[in-house]
Amino acid sequence: MSVEFKSRAPTNDPRLAGWTEYPCAVVTAEDGTYQIVTRAQFDADPLAYIATTKPLAQTKREALSKLADIRWEKTQVMVWDGVVTPASPAISALTGAVVAIQTRVPPPSVEWKLAPGEWRTYDLAQLIALGSAMRDHIQACFSHEAVLDAQIQAAATSREVMAIDLTQGWPATSLAEVGG
Questions:
Q1: Can you give the pTM of this predicted structure?
Q2: Which of 39, 85, 90, 104 is 20 to 30 A from 132, alpha carbon to alpha carbon?
Q3: Are residues 34 and 86 in the same domain?
């Protein structure tokens, strides 16, 4: 599937007699067929002009694979204490730190690196809160993936699958997303 925006419609196409609207989009399907529409028409509803020759099952498999990739990416970082910090990659180290601190009397505070140049001194309760926030963030990512997965599975056509926005609704992974 390709979409190419041109400054004018191809003039050698007999379907274009009297064509006066420019610019246009030439939407070419995998089977070589194409549609020519105005850029405004295409922008208003791109899915109306993009047909797929893929079987529904293949479209669903590809969407589910993309969804899993997005979820994996979203679980890697979260925002904590005003810093974008590792989530999934750091949770085992954080769990180890909590266990180690619990065995000491009195429990010491530890230096924890949230990101390059972003160190914090946390006591046991603060480390547990950070670990809980990491786990909650990761679970929220999986929960959102489950919702989108169900929408993909319920879709009756490839167009319905393609209309599902896989990029919205995820937990925050940047300062901009939390208003920072």
A1: 0.71
A2: 104
A3: no
